[in-house]
Amino acid sequence: MSDHYRILVLLKPGTTQIALDRVAEFARFLPDIEVVVMRVIHEFTEVTKDTIRQTTNREILSIIEKYPSIKHFNVKIVFNNKVPIAFNEEASSGNYNLAVISANKRNTIKDLFVSTIDSNIMRSIKIPLLVVKSANASVVRDKAIIIAIDFEEAKHEQDLDEVLLAKAKSFADKFNGQIHVANCVSPLNRGYMSAKTSMSGVIGKDPSRLSVHHQIMYEFAKKHGINIENCHVLEGRVDDEIPRLAQKLNARMICMGIASETGLLGSIDSTASELVLEQTQADLFIINKSTL
Questions:
Q1: CA dihedral defined by 73, 166, 261, 114, rounded to 10 degrees?
Q2: What DSSP string runs through the chain?
Q3: pTM
């Protein structure tokens, strides 16, 4: 991370701000970071704008007082009935190094058909994004950082891997974290989990295929100076195996890329990153191919 590091944080209504909690933890290690807190007002009229702006500004200033570790604060209040669009537009235009949001709860049937705010942000944001899942998963030193890569995908984005690894190492350097690389080999012979999931765990293993994945993984690790002991070739559904590994390692972050069109990291309908987010308590770090 550079000396001047600018972070955009999406505030949600209410006093509980998990995303800001996480950034405050970063600030204890990196006191010079600049934090821009953004509230998007989606219910308003032209008549009520001024009143809402004043009330919201007072609320945000009250919230900020709870985070003494953050020394450099700015406030941005935007009126837009499309929260993801407003947030992503600001992220693209504000010279930010990182955006941070908290994950939405998904407990209703409606969530199966209507994308949540965090999903829409993840799919189209142009800068690196950190999605905070749990307030209990605090940032401490010496914890694992998992990079999930699909070496098998035909449209595998090597440039994306390089950027993802560089960003993950940046976090690891600041917090003495241990880099782990995970490659999930799907029984469907595809990185991405399609609707045909009933066959997962039923199809027999292919030792030759797994050995190829191990070889590719070790070559990647050797190239980037990653310990072989920190390389994991997993077999099964990505949204099962990656969260299971994260729990085993007590990882504080899972790093994934969203690539161009298809594959483990690329579906617009149901990205692997969203599925992993459903099953883990670790933070999820996302980089879109469009950021390259």
A1: -30
A2: --SS-EEEEE--SSS--HHHHHHHHHHHH-TT-EEEEEEEE-S--TTTHHHHHHHHHHHHHHHHTT-TT--EEEEEEEE-S-HHHHHHHHHHHTT-SEEEEEPPP--SGGGGTS--HHHHHHHH-SS-EEEE--TTS---TT-EEEEE--SS-TT--HHHHHHHHHHHHHHHHHHTPEEEEEEEE-TTS-SS--S--TTTTTSPP-HHHHHHHHHHHHHHHHHHT--GGGEEEEES-HHHHHHHHHHHHT-SEEEEEE-SSSSTTT-SSS-HHHHHHHH-SSEEEEEEGGG-
A3: 0.83
- Token code pair at residue 46: 């032209």
- Contact indicator for 104, 116 with CB cutoff of 8 Å: yes
Please state, in angstroms and rounded to a whole number, the distance separating the CA atoms of residues 187 and 121. 30
Q: How far apart are CA 69 and CA 136, in angstroms?
A: 18
214 in Cβ contact with 233 (< 8 Å): yes
Cα angle: 110, vertex 115, 268; to 5 degrees: 135
Domains and CATH numbers, the chain: 6-132 (3.40.50.620), 144-291 (3.40.50.12370)
Q: Going by C-beta distance under 8 Å and a sequence separation of 6 or more, which residues neighbour residue 129? A: 98, 99, 100, 101, 121, 122, 285, 286, 287, 288
Residue 265, pLDDT above cutoff 70: no
- Residues 176-203 have pLDDT tens digits of 788 999 988 876 544 444 433 333 333 3
How remote is the C-alpha of 8 from its chain's centroid?
A: 14
283-288 sheet: strands from edge to edge: 72-79, 34-41, 6-10, 98-102, 129-132, 283-288, 253-258, 144-148, 178-185, 231-235
Q: What's the first-to-final CA gap in the chain, in angstroms?
A: 17
